[in-house]
Amino acid sequence: MFLGEYLHTFDPKNRISVPSKFRKDLGRVVVVTHGLDHCLYLYSRKAWEKEAQAYAAEVNGIATRRGLARLFLAGSFEVEVDKAGRVLIPENLKSFASLTEKAVIAGVADRVEIWEEGAWKKYIAAIERDADAYVEALGATKN
Fold it and tell me: From CA 6, how far away is CA 137, in angstroms rounded?
């Protein structure tokens, strides 16, 4: 399981270091794709195979499901983690997520997310501000 958040910097070749705590579980070949909320998703090959099968089942379904399947499947790239622990982020994905110099790499259970630093800070601030209301709306309060 991937947990925690880390701030890393892109090098001039669009490579970013994967936190060492994530590397073993990700493996040497990973899949990077579009994510929701304009971040990128990074999966181990094994986890991606499960995700891809679920999306593939939707490619002939209703339009919204087809669209999401296409976004995630056609927008995915297999990339190698190099000996220095870096992955190359394709330019189109870097642009999609508005990534420039610094990025937050966040562990989110079965995947890793890559966020533009400012977007992550805004997103987390909003979640922190509204967390109590979210829990109440979901009916998940525990006393």
Answer: 30
pLDDT for 142 equals 57
Helix axes 45-56, 63-74, angle to 10 degrees: 150
Does residue 1 contact residue 110 with C-beta atoms inside 8 Å? yes
Pairing of the two strands 86-88 and 15-17? antiparallel
Report the alpha-carbon distance of residue 76 to residue 86 in Å, rounded: 17
- Structure-token match 């181990």, residue found: 44
Is residue 29 within a helix (H) or strand (E), and if so which, with residue range?
Answer: strand 29-34
Q: What is the pTM of this model?
A: 0.89
Name residue 105's beta-bridge partners: 6, 114
What is the token pair recorded at 62?
């209703």
Where exactly are the structural domains of the chain?
A: 2-138
Query: What's the CATH number for 2-138?
Result: 3.40.1550.20
Provide the pLDDT confidence category of residue 61 given band limits of 50, 70 and 90: confident
